[in-house]
Amino acid sequence: MLGRTRSSLLGTLEEKLFHACSRGDIENVKYYLEQGANMNMICSTGRTPFGTAAQLGNVAILKIFLDHCNDKKIPSKKDVKRTESAEEKSSLGNFVFVPKGSGSESSSKVDENLNSRYQEVHCRCGKLDDVCLGKSCEHCKSFMSAINKTTYDLACFNDTFVRRDPRFKSRNESDLLSDEDVRTPDGMDGLEWDMEVKGSDVSLAGDDPCSALYIWYAGILSQTSALLEEKPPPKDIDREDQFGCRALHYAAVEGHVDAVRLLINAGCKINVVDLGNLTPLHMAAARDVGEVLEMLIAAGANVHHKTTDKISPLHVSASRGLLNNVRLLVEAGAHVDTLDSSDRSPLFMAVSRCHIEVVSYLLSQGAKVNIEEIHGYTPLYEAVSQKNTTIVKMLLRAGAKITQSHHLLHYAILHRHEEMVRLLISAGSIVNLRDESGDTPLILAAKTQQPNIARLLLESGAAVNYTNYITGNTALHEAIKNMRGGTQVFEEMFRIFQEHDVDLEVESESGYPALYLAIFLRQDDAAAILIRHGASVNSVFHNNPCKYNYEMFTSDLFHWVLHRGNYQLLELFIHAGYNIRNAHIPKTTTHPIERWIVHLQSNPMRLCDLCRIKVRSLFKSKVYKMVSRLPVPPAIKTFLKLEDIN
């Protein structure tokens, strides 16, 4: 059988019947059935002809098959011969289970019952006796005695035990080992089974107590081999194919209404399962054919049945957004909060696939909104992950709670979803909560350069000076590090921070304030903005990242900028109040700005410049806010804000 080629398989009647069904060839289907083709034989595709007809929804061919099943014919000689040959292949008799009794009385009653019904027993001595299980010869008595001495449960006649069933006549050993049935392989003529040795006293007692167990297993294997050679019943309308599917499975999954009705009326079992434990109702639930679903439910389909993964028909329909199917299943009694192997409810499945109508219906039926699946995620988490504000609003109105550890607010900010941020803040998300990376929502907004969300967070109570607990960076540090949006976006972000009293001197874990970071990253526009708004220009840093680069090593920012040759920024440093005496510039320099700085080391600055430095030192980082309130002309305000210096 295993050695057949594909071409030989195609030549069988069943293969021809299968292809006739696939083509819808009614005449050939009738012909091959008359020739004895088995409609339940699994073909090379793994399916049966009967299942294929159901899959294609060919009602005419299905009726032919069903009429063929209802046609009761006398078994042919071929069928009778095959049955007899299967019985003859059993060399050790058949076995029956004897229920556990109470003491020896139960055993004797069973023995008497067997004695009264059956007349022949094939015992080890090779004789046929009129009594059951070795009560007539010494060989059988020895056999029974040895069994009682073994340590196996098989030896206890008061427990469930497999005994020899004398209902079938067994052949003697000479017939059993005839040349017609068994051929000894070449070179193995000297091998002998214990059952072949005649006249030798093979005792089961003493050193070989497992012989009884061997004989028992041999009988089981003998009859099993006969069963395996049997073909499937040719007229079984519930026969499964290689995939465990029946005809009703195929008709349901394809949505063939007439085929399903025909099979149900023919008496097909409704709650049969395939290899994945899927019923026809599961398959119908996956298709938008409500009539099929209604027929199966009316025929007694179990709406609570679950697959190997504990998926119910309601899970299937909800995950596909089939609202009509969901209604039918719920009205038939399906539990709206049933869970699969991952603890996901139908509501969770519908939310994860953004089926708004199904979500609305399940909520109206009282579905629980805070059930967590095995990873701890809720339907609200799924709705936020799908960025579906409509479903989020529905869940929040139904009583969904925000699990702070899910960091939903962080997720919405990272995906630039301002409306979602508003919903989550109004629902109670903590605006200063740090995530696993140590970032607050405001720090994330600064990283992603989102001024509008930053303003929304600050207006909702976010702390502008909160730091990342790992890096020590504030939102201002991150805004400088991520100036991908250009100077304009940074200016807007910085203005929002200024409105909420940002501290310009907060140092990161490395000990650097925002101005140092801007100069180090060569963000000169950001550095100029920070200096104008009052950032200190006289800070000295001992943990310089360039200390191993001797050309760039310096103790303060002024000399770092001087080394880079950014003289516009140097001028801003001087007017912002840098201590000139700390400048180390050779007196032989020829650059105008450097010569001006050398001059200032020995000569006083202008009075207006000194006054500006004094006023700015009083206001510090609030200089812009305070100067804007002063009752002075705009030109003076511009002068005090250092806006006159390009």
Strand content: under 5%
Oligomer: single chain
State the end-to-end CA separation: 93 Å
The 3D shape can be described as elongated
Major beta sheet, strand line-up: 1-4
Q: Given this structure, which CATH class of the domain at 270-401 is correct?
A: Mainly Alpha
Give a count of the beta strands, DSSP E runs of length 2 or more: 4
Quickly give the structural class: mainly alpha
Give the mean pLDDT.
79
Uncertain ranges = 1-10, 72-136, 146-182, 191-206, 545-554
Summarize the biggest pleated sheet: 2 strands, antiparallel
Rounded to the nearest angstrom, the radius of gyration is 45 Å
The fourth-level CATH homologous superfamily of the domain at 270-401 is Ankyrin repeat-containing domain
In DSSP terms (H or I, runs of 4 or more residues), the helix count works out at 34
CATH fold annotation of the domain at 270-401: Serine Threonine Protein Phosphatase 5, Tetratricopeptide repeat
Helix content: 40-55%
CATH architecture of the domain at 270-401: Alpha Horseshoe
ANK repeats: 243-275, 276-308, 309-341, 342-374, 375-407, 404-436, 437-469
Pfam family, one: Ank
Protein name: SOCS box domain-containing protein
Domain SOCS box: 588-646
Key terms:
48% helix, two-stranded antiparallel ribbon, elongated, Serine Threonine Protein Phosphatase 5, Tetratricopeptide repeat, 34 helices, mainly alpha, 646 residues, disordered N terminus
